[in-house]
Amino acid sequence: MISFLKFLRFLGPLTLFFATFVILPPLTMQAFVSEVEIIFLSIFISCLIYGILIEITLRRKKFIYTPRDGFLITFFGWVFISILASLPFFFSGMNYADSIFEAVSGLTTTGSTTISNLSSLSESLLIYRQLLQWAGGVGLIIVVLAIIPAASGGIRILQAETSGFAENSFSPRLKKTARSLLRFYLGITILCAISYWLAGMNYFEAISHSFSTVSIGGFSIYDDNFGHFNSPLIEGIAILFILISATNFGLHFLFLLKKDFKFYVKNDEFKFFLLLILAATTFSVLVLLFNEEIGLSESFRYGIFQTISIITTTGFTITNLDNMGILLPVLIMLLAFVGACSGSVGGGIKAWRINILIRLAFDNITKIMHPTAVSTIKFNGEKIEQKQIESVFSFVAIYVLISILFLLVLMLQNIDFYSAFSAVSATLNNLGPGLGQFSDNYSSLEPAGKITLSLAMIIGRLEIFGFLLLLFPSFWRN
């Protein structure tokens, strides 16, 4: 009963956040054209009333949050808000599976869609889709920082899941940290929108795409995504803000506080991430130029934009991925498993884990050649402890097993391997676009497949352990 009250209390500020940042903007747009949809108004009023009731009844009630409470509240909070977020889609005429899929895809910043004709949606519903991603991008960080550290031993859990945040980059006071994150997130959103507008987008386009850019979401208001603009300048701006959002936010805070680039230069994960981006984009350009025989300018545009967008799990496209041959789309889909940096809004396994695995591999090769050699593996100048190595190996192993499980489930639904692999990669890594059957959208999926992939999106956003813990009986007993 106490845990349920804790959940109800947490839903108070969560629903207010959702109502203010996601429901209010499209509701305001509708008010200007005198076509207020009752569903938006109903959700806004309900969230407002609920938040006030929680403020009156439970706000000052003292609760002691345990680690179990943190994981339970985080997971079920995502599920509850996803169901709530699906209502505008459902009442606009979409079926329940499509509505859930679209809402979860937005909130988890995945960017996959079942909608084949975005022009049929009203502007208020389009901006609502974009805001789902913006709120989901900042919301996860705030939830992780505000809930899990509040629990007993939660700081250790937070450090395990967001290694690389850097201890000195954030205030020890959680409320102050959350406000700082929100201000920074809002600031780069405004800068991104202004940059898009100066580059040629209109106000609505610039604001809409800034929401999905800084959240690394991938939603667009056009069916042909960023290909609609056909502008290298706009694509360059998108790449800049994608890389900012894919980098550890802790490094950004340290740079803004100390005005020193050394925090980027000395961070092993950031250097590995940039090296991976550089190598992948170079290879992509060469493959498109010589193997696919695409023109020089198109090879550079497609190779750089598509590769960075996919590896960072953003999911923006300027052309259908299947138009780039077979080798390259599969390769960058595999690289999407690496994902963005820790402490960012990106998905995937995270660059720091892959970096550690590579270091361990080279260390073992050295030991085979020189059995008596004594070596120490360091990351960001600190020795990697055995428990950290075990944590990385267990996470990656479980990540691969979960991927295979979802792949088999989709193939049982008569989906070919190529399409099923791309769908699992796109949803579990919170990426978005798929290949083969899903190169345009996911509308051809049966309802069971859409619910399956919706679960994959949530699991990927919670970094797997947050979900798997709920399946162990011992977790519920103690």
UniProtKB/TrEMBL annotation:
<dbReference type="GO" id="GO:0005886">
    <property type="term" value="C:plasma membrane"/>
</dbReference>
<dbReference type="InterPro" id="IPR004772">
    <property type="entry name" value="TrkH"/>
</dbReference>
<feature type="binding site">
    <location>
        <position position="110"/>
    </location>
    <ligand>
        <name>K(+)</name>
    </ligand>
</feature>
<dbReference type="GO" id="GO:0046872">
    <property type="term" value="F:metal ion binding"/>
</dbReference>
<feature type="binding site">
    <location>
        <position position="109"/>
    </location>
    <ligand>
        <name>K(+)</name>
    </ligand>
</feature>
<feature type="binding site">
    <location>
        <position position="431"/>
    </location>
    <ligand>
        <name>K(+)</name>
    </ligand>
</feature>
<comment type="function">
    <text>Low-affinity potassium transport system. Interacts with Trk system potassium uptake protein TrkA.</text>
</comment>
<keyword id="KW-0813">Transport</keyword>
<comment type="similarity">
    <text>Belongs to the TrkH potassium transport family.</text>
</comment>
<keyword id="KW-0479">Metal-binding</keyword>
<feature type="transmembrane region" description="Helical">
    <location>
        <begin position="392"/>
        <end position="412"/>
    </location>
</feature>
<feature type="binding site">
    <location>
        <position position="314"/>
    </location>
    <ligand>
        <name>K(+)</name>
    </ligand>
</feature>
<keyword id="KW-0812">Transmembrane</keyword>
<keyword id="KW-0633">Potassium transport</keyword>
<feature type="transmembrane region" description="Helical">
    <location>
        <begin position="70"/>
        <end position="91"/>
    </location>
</feature>
<feature type="transmembrane region" description="Helical">
    <location>
        <begin position="7"/>
        <end position="26"/>
    </location>
</feature>
<dbReference type="Pfam" id="PF02386">
    <property type="entry name" value="TrkH"/>
</dbReference>
<keyword id="KW-0406">Ion transport</keyword>
<feature type="transmembrane region" description="Helical">
    <location>
        <begin position="131"/>
        <end position="151"/>
    </location>
</feature>
<feature type="transmembrane region" description="Helical">
    <location>
        <begin position="237"/>
        <end position="257"/>
    </location>
</feature>
<keyword id="KW-1133">Transmembrane helix</keyword>
<feature type="transmembrane region" description="Helical">
    <location>
        <begin position="451"/>
        <end position="472"/>
    </location>
</feature>
<feature type="binding site">
    <location>
        <position position="430"/>
    </location>
    <ligand>
        <name>K(+)</name>
    </ligand>
</feature>
<feature type="transmembrane region" description="Helical">
    <location>
        <begin position="326"/>
        <end position="349"/>
    </location>
</feature>
<feature type="binding site">
    <location>
        <position position="217"/>
    </location>
    <ligand>
        <name>K(+)</name>
    </ligand>
</feature>
<feature type="binding site">
    <location>
        <position position="313"/>
    </location>
    <ligand>
        <name>K(+)</name>
    </ligand>
</feature>
<keyword id="KW-0630">Potassium</keyword>
<feature type="transmembrane region" description="Helical">
    <location>
        <begin position="181"/>
        <end position="199"/>
    </location>
</feature>
<feature type="transmembrane region" description="Helical">
    <location>
        <begin position="269"/>
        <end position="290"/>
    </location>
</feature>
<keyword id="KW-0472">Membrane</keyword>
<dbReference type="GO" id="GO:0015379">
    <property type="term" value="F:potassium:chloride symporter activity"/>
</dbReference>
<feature type="binding site">
    <location>
        <position position="216"/>
    </location>
    <ligand>
        <name>K(+)</name>
    </ligand>
</feature>
<feature type="transmembrane region" description="Helical">
    <location>
        <begin position="38"/>
        <end position="58"/>
    </location>
</feature>
<keyword id="KW-1003">Cell membrane</keyword>
<keyword id="KW-0997">Cell inner membrane</keyword>
<dbReference type="InterPro" id="IPR003445">
    <property type="entry name" value="Cat_transpt"/>
</dbReference>
<protein>
    <recommendedName>
        <fullName>Trk system potassium uptake protein</fullName>
    </recommendedName>
</protein>
